[in-house]
Amino acid sequence: MTATTTAIEHAARILNEGGLVALPTETVYGLGADAESAQAVAKIYAAKQRPANHPLIVHVAPEADLSYWTRDIPQEARKLIEAFWPGPLTLILPKNPAIDDAVTGGQDSIGLRCPSHPVAMALIRAFARLRESGQAGIAAPSANRFGHVSPTRAQHVRDEFPQECANGMPVLEGGDTEIGIESTIVDVSRIAQGVPVVLLRPGHISATQLEQVLGYPPARPDGAVPRASGTLKAHYAPQTRLSLFDASDLKGLLASRPQQERWAVYAFEAQPNGLPAQIQWHQVPSDPVRYAHDLYALLRDADQQHFDHLLIQRLPGDVAWDAISDRLQRAAAAFE
Ligand code: TXA
Ligand code: MG
């Protein structure tokens, strides 16, 4: 289940003509456009119904000339690139002024990521071959409508963008995404001004792994950093009403269910005996890597089955769960 070379080359031509293409990455599927074209980037904002001042991540190939996109690559960024690219790490760097402001939402920094998914890499390379400069960047947010759950399968993208697909937007097949949650975002754009490395969005690459490479822990956002939609309080939300529960509260919660309501419960424990038929129980993985892999598809399942309420057990407090806790809390905040 992976896109053919012909499909990839067709998609590259569409990018080069200013059109939209959905592509798999190792984190989630992206909705891609030529990062250097303001008109192409505008199509992403329109399709996603996303505010145009929210900057997009530019996806580049491992051999990309980073000076084409940035003014300066601090030593810290070089170390992180060496350790984690290609892979699920986005770096916010000082932008090369020659790059159009549309992709950065007017900010003078640029988010760069080198994805490891073979289809994403092949697409960027095929696109670069069509460019005179030999450089190509695909601006790609997650391929979901603003505020929704990110897609981890090609079918999720088709569900989110039926109109665009009917109008010929290619959705490159890449199977279930391996990681399942969005990349870790690290801001290294203001180191020259004395601002430390900031972890803007937790992800599969943890704060601990970043610290191992940097030699010190990254700082947390202080509010002065540019706004990132993935960092809004309510985001990543399913349509189904969602709440988080502690194991000790579950009995009482289940007892409070109005009789006609159908509930889904995602818990670490196995299904207890004697559950009413209106409650669907799903035992979630106890390992954070597998949990992240499954999470978004599970949220979409609850929507598709039209449950009245989705109850998800709160996650363990240790750092290995940070990125997933972040997503779940934002998803639940949409219903508070
Ligand atoms: O895993 C991912 O990162 C996926 C795949 C498709 O690569 N992409 C993704 O994009 O999650 P998106 O747009 O849903 O989230 C990107 C986040 C946004 O919250 C955006 O505001 C932030 O990155 N961002 C991008 N460029 C930035 C910049 N120059 N300064 C601050 N934040 C930036
Ligand atoms: Mg997103």
UniProtKB/TrEMBL annotation:
Q: Which GO terms describe its cellular component?
A: cytoplasm
For this protein, the record's SUPFAM superfamilies field holds: YrdC/RibB
A single GO molecular-function term is:
double-stranded RNA binding
Keyword terms: ATP-binding, Cytoplasm, Nucleotide-binding, Nucleotidyltransferase, Transferase, tRNA processing
Which residues does L-threonine bind? Answer: T27, R113, A140, S142, S183
Protein's recorded name: Threonylcarbamoyl-AMP synthase
The processes (GO biological process) annotated in the record are:
regulation of translational fidelity; tRNA processing
Binding-site residues, ATP:
R50, H59, S150, R201, Y236
Coiled-coil ranges (or none): none
**Role of this protein:** Required for the formation of a threonylcarbamoyl group on adenosine at position 37 (t(6)A37) in tRNAs that read codons beginning with adenine.
What chemistry does it catalyse, as a reaction equation? Answer: L-threonine + hydrogencarbonate + ATP = L-threonylcarbamoyladenylate + diphosphate + H2O
Taxonomy, superkingdom = Bacteria
> Which residue ranges does the record assign to the YrdC-like domain?
5-205
NCBIfam families assigned: L-threonylcarbamoyladenylate synthase
Q: Which PROSITE patterns match?
A: YRDC
Q: Where in the cell is it found?
A: Cytoplasm
Q: E.C. number, please?
A: 2.7.7.87
The UniProt family comment states:
Belongs to the SUA5 family.
